[in-house]
Design a protein that fits this description.
With 119 residues, the protein is mainly α. The protein is built from 6 helices and no strands.
């Protein structure tokens, strides 16, 4: 039986986050998770860059982003479709926690990056 994804579990990955790992991992998962999920991932990434976001929320974001690109998962990513559900759930849970920080500036940055990643 799969382990439940919680904010505590997600934040446990925050110490494993680094920019290099994130960008190389994101390149690898783009085709697997699709444009809509990558859009949400990038929203989290750009919220992480904001100064007015609490440290605890930044830890959640780093945890979710690290979890996405980490080879260690509750459900292994090598399982078609189902393998990405836990990653997508983690992104969704954290995005719901920090959505108040997503503004038009972040969405513009995301759209530019999406065009770069998918074109």
């Amino acid at each position: 039986m799969a382990e439940k994804i919680s904010l505590e579990k997600i934040s446990g990955f925050s110490g494993k986050f680094n920019e290099s790992m994130f960008w190389s991992g994101l390149q690898k998962v783009c085709s697997a998770v699709g444009r809509e999920v990558v859009y949400k991932v990038l929203q989290l990434y750009y919220v992480l860059q904001k100064d007015d976001v609490a440290t605890s929320q930044k830890a959640l974001i780093m945890g979710a982003l690290a979890y996405l690109v980490s080879p260690i998962d509750v459900v292994p990513d090598c399982i078609p479709v189902v393998g990405w559900l836990d990653d997508v759930a983690a992104i969704g849970i954290v995005l719901s926690q920090v959505s108040k920080y997503v503004d038009s500036d972040i969405n513009r940055k995301v759209e530019r990056k999406i065009d770069e990643l998918f074109d």
